[in-house]
Design goal:
single chain, about 110 residues, mainly alpha, 5 helices
Length: about 110
């Protein structure tokens, strides 16, 4: 009850005083990043190195006892203009990997 009495006294004392109202400037809210921007970043194609491509192709050619070796060689010839893996342009690595990933998955 003492607290209630103290609050009443405080309110009564404030009513007697001439108080000024001040304006507080508004603060701008910080916007969260838009989800679309995150989605675009995830859709970017990964970059592959020659070593990564070699590893994937080696794994694919050796699955099922080497059963898919001819398919892997055909892909290398296709993207390397009839040559070897070193003849495949780096810009074609992602497409080569994409086609190689389906080998042996049927």
């Amino acid at each position: 009850m003492k607290a209630l009495t103290a609050v009443r006294e405080l309110v009564a004392s404030l009513e007697d005083k001439d108080l000024k109202v001040i304006d507080v400037p508004e603060q701008k809210a910080i916007e969260a990043p838009k989800p679309a921007a995150k989605a675009k970043a995830k859709k970017e194609e990964p970059t592959y190195t020659l070593e990564t491509v070699r590893e994937v192709l080696s794994r694919k050619s050796n699955i099922d006892g080497g059963q898919h070796r001819a398919e892997v060689k055909a892909l290398v010839k296709k993207y390397g203009n009839g040559g070897t893996l070193k003849d495949v342009p780096a810009e074609q690595y992602a497409a080569l990997i994409a086609e190689a990933e389906v080998i042996g998955n049927a």
